[in-house]
Amino acid sequence: MHIDARELENNSIIEGDICIVGAGAAGISIALDWMDAPYKVILLEGGGFEYDDKVQELYAGKTTGQKYFPLKSARLHYFGGTTGHWAGMCAPFDPIDFKKRDWVPNSGWPISKTDLDPFYAKANKVLKLGPYNYEYEYWNNELPNLTPFPLDNKVVWNKMWQFSQARYGNLYKKTIIEAKNIHLYTYANAVDIKTDDNISNVKEVIVKNYAGKAHTVKAKHFVMACGTIQNARILLAANSQTPQGLGNDNDLVGRYFQEHLEVASAELWLSNPFPTDLYSWDYGITKASAELAITEEVQTKEKMLNGTASLLPLSIAKYQKPRMETWQNSDPRKSADNMFANWGEAAEKAKGEKGNIERAYQLNTRIEQAPNPNSRVTLGEEKDELGVPRANLHWELTPLDKYSVRKIYQILGQQVGIAGIGRIRLNEFLRDENDDTFPDSTNGGWHHMGTTRMADDPKKGVVDSNCQVHGISNLFIAGAACYPTSGASNPTLNLTALSLRLSNYLKNKM
Q1: For residue 247, which of 191, 213, 260, 469 is within the disulfide window of CB 3.0 to 4.6 Å?
Q2: Residue 321: what are its φ and ψ, rounded to 5°?
Q3: How far is CA 185 from the centre of its chain?
Q4: For residue range 443-457, what is the model confidence (pLDDT) as tens digits?
Q5: Measuring CA to CA, which residue among 508, 253, 226, 272 is closest to residue 373?
Q6: Distances (CA, A) of 389 to 230, 304, 377, 380
Q7: 188, 207 Cβ separation under 8 angstroms
């Protein structure tokens, strides 16, 4: 069932068993999991079914620290959320991502990969992927021409990815609307959360929209699925009963914001052509491909973060501008147009490139960011048109981040040389080992993580191992905001699995 909250009588009361705030990948995945259950599910979406720049403006905010994208254009604010323009890259976390690593401050999850494995299998189905199998050997039997580089697999391994074309807004709109027990409210922006006097149980969520309407939502359980920045923003802004904001007794809400650093880092020059499709990707066509990754044993020995290296023909890459440069318009549609125009121009120029450059590749890093409490979301002094303080993002990197990027290519350079297949040349910004800074051209992946991190100890995290906010019995956080560490995998598959695990816990609780 679909209800436009702009059409409701002002100050309406909406009641149900479970209220999910946010209809992106996390919120829709949970709602789908409750279809046909004997419970009334309320799914709140701040926007509609199409882009609306006035609604999108609610995401605007300021950034400081390492250069970042405009916050307004870093997320999409309508049904389906940012799956409306994602690239579809999916891979599960590695076992090391969940472990406490003595060289990575504030690392360690209260759950392990085996706790998520059953929900990864379900998430693969939600994302319309192939089987829950990310082993090279499996895909080598399924697809042709996946010959790997002859590197020592005790040092470098082929991390496999599957590619989803699931745009939740299109894929699941009809299903959600026709579900008898799911009540989707569009144009229902959460602006406040009210609890009982003991701040131990949420009583209601207040929603507003540009039509000047305000409504009250009551439920037994509330799940915040608004995205990493907005989840933190709403909790911090819910400060009428507790000045520091909900779940923020230990000043942790908003801290440990993490991104995936995605940066051109080196060049690979092969001695001879190496025909393989293993390391290439064509959107809408490729089912699975690989990136080069460093094994857990070597990461432990070198005390480095987890990251991968992907290949892009240098003939194209040398004409591409960094995304941090082309994606600077606050309108996400215009930023996307700028980026794709540059990619098209680069591909056109590359057609004239011949000779040795045909055996050359740009190596692009995707790496986890070390958890840093100073990398954080806070509230600004300015409020949006619905009266909520805007989010400020301070993105701050650490020496471990730079060391780890450099170490990946030092290791790959050694292995490529030992294999006798070519040479690797570090980009200029990595050559001085005493320089811990990153250039302004460093991209983020638009992968917002952290801010309400998971830990069994409330002094170390905002939510527990079941994604329940510490001290508040019926308030839960869904999505990548709960990640203590970010791994090297794109977040959507992982946050979907984590959200389905939360959904299963709530079903048992109900």
Answers
A1: 469
A2: -85, 155
A3: 24
A4: 999 999 999 999 999
A5: 253
A6: 11, 38, 12, 6
A7: yes
Q: Give residue for tokens 């800074």.
A: 437
Residue type, 464: D
Classify residue 348 as exposed, middle or buried by CB count within 10 Å of its CB (0-12, 13-18, 19+): exposed
Radius of gyration of the chain (CA): 23
The alpha carbon of 316 is separated from its chain's Cα centroid by a whole number of angstroms, namely: 27
Beta strand pairing call for 261-270 and 360-367: antiparallel
**What is d(CA 311, CA 264) in angstroms, rounded to the nearest whole number?**
10
Q: What is the mean pLDDT of residues 73-83?
A: 96
Which pLDDT score is estimated for 282? 86
The one-character DSSP state at 324 is H
- Cα separation, 176 vs 186, whole angstroms: 12
Retrieve residue 257's tokens.
């914001």
Helices 491-509/25-33 angle, 10° precision: 40
Q: How far apart, in whole angstroms, are the C-alpha atoms of residue 316 and residue 293?
A: 23
Q: Facing residues of 360 across strands?
A: 269
Instruction: Flag whether pLDDT at 119 surpasses 90.
Output: yes
Q: From 163, 129, 488, 53, select the one nearest 309 (Cα to Cα).
A: 488
Q: Residues with Cβ < 8 Å from 121, sequence gap 6 or more? A: 132
Phi, psi of 332 (to 5 degrees): -60, -25
223 within 8 A of 445, measured Cβ to Cβ: no
Closest CA to 130 of 309, 289, 293, 291: 289
